[in-house]
Write a structure and sequence with these properties.
single chain, alpha+beta, Protein Transport Mog1p, Chain A, 7-stranded antiparallel beta sheet, 5 helices, 28% strand, globular, disordered N terminus
């Protein structure tokens, strides 16, 4: 997997591994067809419509377009292009997340800091000039990774959490 950054630098392999760990799951991809109970539940999961490119740009101060979404039964990952980087901003929504799952995700980062005033619990990590903010509200966890300051990410996260 290769992500190009400004000035030709690559996104840290550690960050890629962390995002892949969070973005992948054992859940099958959502499919079209007759609605089933699982498909009906998946249709109500938070998704990229909660974070249009205009909102992300306004809150983070980073010009992005509309997101590309990847959805499974539990996870929706929204990727926003920044310049030539197709994943310059990543927002990931996960449902059915509890404290144990949140803690497991936090352990995947080499260094984190608790963030107060955001959801039931939140932490941040900085890797290769990218800030990742993860917050949980009820059973919904949101991960936000961008080349932005924590204060800007916190503002966007509060908006997203208010929508779930």
């Amino acid at each position: 997997m290769r992500f190009l950054m400004k000035a030709g630098t690559r996104l840290s392999l550690t960050l890629i591994a962390a995002v892949v760990l969070f973005a992948c799951g054992s859940s099958p991809a959502a499919t079209s067809g007759p609605p089933s109970p699982a498909a009906s539940v998946a249709a109500t999961n938070p998704g990229c419509d909660l974070a249009p490119g205009s909102l992300v740009t306004a809150q983070l101060g980073v010009a992005v377009g509309d997101p590309r979404a990847t959805t499974t039964s539990l996870v929706t990952t929204c990727m926003y292009t920044v310049g030539s980087n197709p994943s310059g901003v990543i927002i990931r929504f996960q449902i059915n997340e509890d404290h144990a799952g949140y803690s497991l995700g936090m352990a995947a980062f080499s260094s984190t800091s608790d963030v107060s005033g955001v959801g039931a619990e939140a932490y941040s990590a900085v890797i290769a000039s990218y800030t990742t903010l993860v917050a949980r509200k009820g059973t919904v966890e949101i991960l936000l990774t961008a080349k932005a300051v924590l204060g800007a990410e916190k503002g966007l996260m509060l908006i997203l959490l208010s929508k779930v």
